[in-house]
């Protein structure tokens, strides 16, 4: 279970506050207007932002000051975090070993992950030789081999077309379920949210509301949600 207790971050004129709990194994969409603090929330969870005050705990262990490299967190950003000079296999293998010195069992694990995301036979290709959807699949395969209990995704499919976004959302949820991970994904596309989310965290004016089941959120949405949908 992930707990944010009296979390407060101040950066110049920007403030973000959160008091919420996220259950294990939940798929959570993070929504809100541009500039509200959605990506900042993920940065806090990933350890890339230092809290001004408050406490962040994972299964009752205080991780507020734990550096990113020591957190059990996997992150995917808009650009998929792929190294252009490395092959798809190598980019996935980085999720296991930074120096890519893989044992046979780990090589098999990478190939199995590539197969699972529909990239069988494409491990030798570099990102420039892959389509946008295939690059997203490489990033998801890396999540699969990392086996982290908390997955953070910041608009990972925003550059893809509508049909491919939905396919990738399905795949991301499948990976979270396979690994029993808790997933938080920032998205501006409500179709993605409907596809992936158990719960929704609404962020507006620097305040993160506690997660609500998607059905409850839609039955009684916050005041800014209608304007958000346009």
UniProtKB/TrEMBL annotation:
Q: Which UniProt keywords apply?
A: ATP-binding, Cell inner membrane, Cell membrane, Membrane, Nucleotide-binding, Translocase, Transport
SUPFAM superfamilies on file? P-loop containing nucleoside triphosphate hydrolases
Q: Has the keyword Iron been applied to this entry?
A: no
- A single Pfam family, by name? ABC_tran
Keyword Nucleotide-binding set for record: yes
Q: Which residues, by range, are in coiled-coil regions? A: none
InterPro entries named among the record's database cross-references: AAA+_ATPase, ABC_SmlMolc_Importer, ABC_transporter-like_ATP-bd, ABC_transporter-like_CS, P-loop_NTPase
Checking PANTHER family in the record gives: SPERMIDINE/PUTRESCINE IMPORT ATP-BINDING PROTEIN POTA, THIAMINE IMPORT ATP-BINDING PROTEIN THIQ
| Protein name from the UniProt record | Thiamine transport system ATP-binding protein
